Every structure is written in C-alpha cells, then in structure tokens.
Amino acid sequence: MRLADVLSLVEGWYPPHRADDWDRVGLVCGDPDAQVRRILLAVDPVLAVAGEAVALDADLLLVHHPLYLRGTSSVAATTPKGRVVHQLLTHGCALYSAHTNADAPAGGVSEAIAQALGLEEVRPLEADPVEPRDKLVFFVPVADAERVRSAVTEAGAGAIGYYDSASFTSPGEGRFRPLVGANPAIGRVGDLEVVDEVRVEVLVERRVRGRVLAALLAAHPYEEPAYDVVPLAALDDPSRGSGRIGVLAEPMTLRAFAQEAATVFPRTAGGLRVAGDPDAVVRTVALCGGAGDFLLERALAAGADVYVTSDLRHHPASEVRERDDLALVDVAHAAAESLWLPVLRDRLVTALDDTVEVHVSTVNTDPWTFRV
Ligand SMILES: [Zn+2]
Fold first, then answer.
1. Domains in the chain, ordered, with CATH?
2. How far does residue 291's CA lie from ligand 1's centre (Å)?
3. Which of 285, 281, 282 is nearest to 246 (CA)?
4. Percent of residues, the chain, with pLDDT higher than 90
5. Per-residue pLDDT tens for 218-255?
6. Number of C-beta neighbours around residue 179 at 10 A
7. CA–centroid distance, residue 5 to ligand 1 (Å)
8. Which residues lie at CB < 5 A from ion ligand 1?
9. Phi then psi for 284, rounded to 5 degrees?
C-alpha cells in the first residue's frame, strides 16, 4: 500500500487541519509514493524509537509528538533530531506525527485513556464546537441543475460525516428583467422573464467556501447567479473535544482507583502521584492526555471526583486542593498517551486488512528513569 493511502486513512480519522495553530503535524520525512508494509506506532520520535523502527524494518514510524515543534533550519546528523531524520531516511522509513489533531476526536488519545480506565457514559470534558460551516443556497434553471450541483459537491460542498454529495433540491420560478448592458443566458434585454428553476441547499465547511463559490460561479449558466451564504451556529460537537469525563461502573475509594489505574498505564519509574484523601469515594472521573493543567477548572465545574492527567504543576494543583475535594492523579505523560497506540493499531489493522503489519513500540520514552 502507498504511504499516501495509509496517511489519507489516518487523516480522515485525525484531520490535520483540526490541530492547534501552534502545532506541527503531518509528514516529517518520506515519499508519499513509497510502499508501506510495516508500521511502528510510538509516542515520541526519539533516537531509541527510530532505532526500533529500523530494527523492525518499518516503512512508517507514526508518532504522537512532533519531531520539530519549533521549526529548524537543519536536519544535519549533528543533533539528536537530525540523527533521527538520517536514521529513518537511510533505512527508507517515513516519519509522521498526529498530535493535537489526535487528542480531541473519537478514537483519539483522551478517549483511549477513558476506555482503558473502564469509564462509562464518556463525553468530552470540554466539547469542541462543530467545524465552522455555512449553508449555501443557490437557484439554477432545471436543465442546468445536475451539472451545477455536481460542480459544487465536487469542490467539497455537501460533505456530512461519512457522506458526500448531500444536498436538497426544490422547484420554483425564477423572475428577472435583463437591463441594457446585460448579456443574458436566457431572455432578452427589456423583457421580464420567468424560468423554471430549482433551489439547491447544501452544507459547506467554511474552509472550502472559496473553492465551492468559485465552482458555483464557473458552472452556473447565468451572468448574475443568485445565491446566499448563511453562517450556521457553532454548536458543540458531542463526539470531540478536550479531555473526557465519565463514571466508574462502581464507586470506589481513591486508593483503590489509583491502584487500579496504576495497572492500566505502562509502568514508569515515577509511578502515579495522587493528591486527596485515600479513603474518599470516587465515581465521576475526568481526564486529559498530556499536560492537563488547562482543564482543572473544567473538571471542577463538571463535578468530577478525581482528575487524571500529566505534568500537573505545583501552583495549579495546590490551589485546586485548597478550595475543593477534587482529587488529582498525575501520571507520566508518555505512559498516559501510549494508551492511544493500541487503539490506533486496531483501527489500522481493521482498515488495512492483512496488507500492512502494525506494531506498537515497546520503548519506554518517559524521561524519568529512577527515584530515590
Ligand atoms: Zn503529549
């Protein structure tokens, strides 16, 4: 299978344009036309992981964290990151990263952690708004409707979830009088014209609006086509957002919850750090893959008993503990996010059948190696 085909599958699940503005996701190195027979999935594109990809003879190393988040002017093998690029390119292995675009959606990082913790009734802790969309309405003579409708849907209008070419057409009468200077496709200057037309309604994601309108104007037979572009409300998307919240099948003490969570995440030198009364009973669990400081207030407002995340800093943690009973569980960043990898492997294996082998990295990329 071509690398481009594998990536278009991955980008359908984790659209790169939904990544945060500061993020750098996508193909780092590799030829989209190259063949892929073996994929390695990992959290961090560090040297040990690149070595693992080479030893495995992988054609694609798909990671969560970007290699060059802040840009670079050199990929010389004089730096660890440059050596990663060299090692992979020398052995014909592409490198691809799906980062913040993989955090929020269904089948993403936070949802994978929620599933691994056995949560039920899982929903985003902070839902994303649906992708900005417009309703495009245009009017076209019956005889030209099919052609113009096809032109706008080919340009990307009418895409809803796993459907494309979605539109609604209703009949009516169009009226107009061409004035001096007009060059009408139908009718004559000075005569009031009545034409059998249809009204076509179609959803357009705002990021393809320009392309769709250009296609409409190019395909429409009229000199002055009539059309409306109506912006739609930014409703919450129940299927995607930052973090997740859900409930345990049975309430349990914070101590029991932490002990169970410790068996769910890969072992790290630091283990889990817990803040709260070990005998307090917890049932509602909020969580966020990666550094989740930014959702502390949200976890409080949502009524969580415990918040599971990584890289919690002293002040935010201390301030929350001072004013509320919200318990905190801090888990190693890479360990938490690695729970996404088996989910991604299963999706790839299901979609690609047996044409491609998919492996999950066994390298522990947590930088903390021991404690005293
Ligand atoms: Zn991360």
1. 3-99+339-360 (3.40.1390.30), 109-128+238-331 (3.40.1390.30), 133-231 (3.30.70.120)
2. 7
3. 285
4. 95
5. 999 999 999 999 999 999 998 899 999 999 999 999 99
6. 9
7. 26
8. 290, 337
9. -90, 125
Rounded-to-integer distance, Cα 300 and Cα 345, Å = 33
For the residues 195-209, what does the mean pLDDT come to?
97
Give the CA diameter of the chain: 92
HSE at residue 272, side-chain half, CA atoms within 13 A, is 23
Consecutive H or E run containing 289: strand 281-291
The position carrying tokens 């899982």 is 122
Q: How many CA atoms lie within 13 A of 214 on its CB side?
A: 7
pLDDT digits (tens, 9 = 90+) for 60-86: 999 999 999 998 999 999 999 999 999
Q: Tell me the CA–centroid distance for residue 162 and ligand 1, in Å.
A: 28
Residues 56/38, Cβ–Cβ less than 8 Å: yes
Q: How far is the CA of 44 from the centre of ligand 1 (A)?
A: 9
pLDDT of residue 354: 81
Among residues 166, 371, 168, 183, the alpha carbon closest in space to that of 268 is found at 371
Q: What would the two tokens of residue 312 be?
A: 């919690």
Residue 103 alpha carbon to ligand 1 centre in Å: 9
Residues 74 and 78: their CA atoms lie apart, in Å, by 9
Phi, psi of 75 (to 5 degrees): -115, 25
pLDDT class for 324, splitting at 50, 70, 90? confident
In this structure, the number of other CB atoms found within 10 A of the CB of residue 106 comes to 12
Closest Cα to residue 212, out of 220, 223, 204? 204
* Mean pLDDT value of segment 133-139: 97
